[in-house]
Amino acid sequence: MRDSVIAPILLGWYDRHARALPWRVPPHSGGVADPYRIWLSEVMLQQTTVAAVRDYFHRFTTRWPTVTDLAAAADGDVMAEWAGLGYYARARNLLACARRVAGDLGGVFPDSMDGLRALPGIGPYTAAAIAAIAFDRPETVVDGNVERVIARLHAETAAMPAVKPRLRALAARHTPLDRPGDYAQAVMDLGATVCTPRKPACAICPLREPCAAHAAGIAAELPARAPKTVRPRRFGTVYAACRADGAWLLETRPPKGLLGGMLGLPGGAWAETAPQASPPLAADWRDVGATVRHVFTHFELTLTVLTARLPQSVAAPLGLAWSAPGFRADDLPSVMAKALRLAAAQD
Ligand code: SF4
Questions:
Q1: How far apart are CA 281 and CA 222, in angstroms?
Q2: Which of 193, 214, 221 to mutate to test the pocket of ligand 1 (most atoms within 8 A of CB)?
Q3: Mean pLDDT over residues 231-249, rounded?
Q4: Cα 216 to Cα 58: distance, rounded to the nearest angstrom
Q5: What share of the chain is helix, strand, coil (3-state, %, to 5)?
Q6: What is the pLDDT of residue 347?
Q7: Average per-residue pLDDT for the chain
Q8: For a substitution probing ligand 1, which of 14, 148, 149, 199 has the most ligand atoms within 8 Å of its CB?
Q9: What is the pLDDT of residues 275-316, one digit of tens each?
Q10: Could you confirm whether 156 is annotated as catalytic?
Q11: Per-residue confidence at 1, pLDDT binned at 50, 70, 90?
Q12: What domains are there in the chain, each with its CATH number?
């Protein structure tokens, strides 16, 4: 059954307090959301904060203002612009999706859940977000912010993640037929700015009256979490070779798998015990004396970094290349950038 109490309160609050975001059309501005910009922002925001996404979004939309422009971009250019944003499968799917929309759909994004779900890299959450925000469809958009608001509003004390389906069903009850796109953004904004994880600002919250967790004094404890599992650890080695002119020896990682298609330092596979990786060429390799620790979603990686200085005349081994002039550590994925900075600091 649809609950018609919450949406009008939140929409009224959103009209006064909506966050200004570069991809967003402010409420009652008369503007029309651009599905390309909504899609791009939603893909970038998967697992990533608004603060981290802003600059990337600006650079992407300046360089590729439409989905057709992005579809025509070279893979390497898009991967380089994405460097540092993490979760690189998103960048590969981004290109595949742009090319599908530009090639098969005449540059027009579908406006239905089914049409959106059929595109690469668009799962149920992203499809609902695009359908609601770009096309004002009454889809229920449930991210971490929304789960928190709903768990508290209903004082739902069962632990995550098992409680997720229940939270989704409760959230769906509140989704209005009027302004569903603004409503979706309103709940997310409330979770991001008022109903925050550790210290919910109940005193200024528009949902203070109907909120069951606030009434029970348990807001900050929700949503309840199951005990944490320990992330498995993996180990690897990278070889940071620097030529006399300052160029670094780089590999393009295989297209599939973690960091697929991105530039990186050569090295072996990552494994549960420290693997023996062969150096890419003969040189006086030295351990930099510190390791790189990087946390991925499903494991924690410790990289040993070896570095060597090489004369200008050394050719890159087959499959590797010396970096181009102007190359910076920031052009690499974060874990590789950390390793390169460690090696560069050895001078
Ligand atoms: Fe969150 Fe407090 Fe508002 Fe309830 S009253 S929705 S706990 S901020």
A1: 54
A2: 214
A3: 95
A4: 43
A5: 40, 15, 45
A6: 64
A7: 94
A8: 149
A9: 778 999 999 999 998 899 999 988 999 999 999 999 999 999
A10: no
A11: low
A12: 6-221 (1.10.340.30), 233-344 (3.90.79.10)
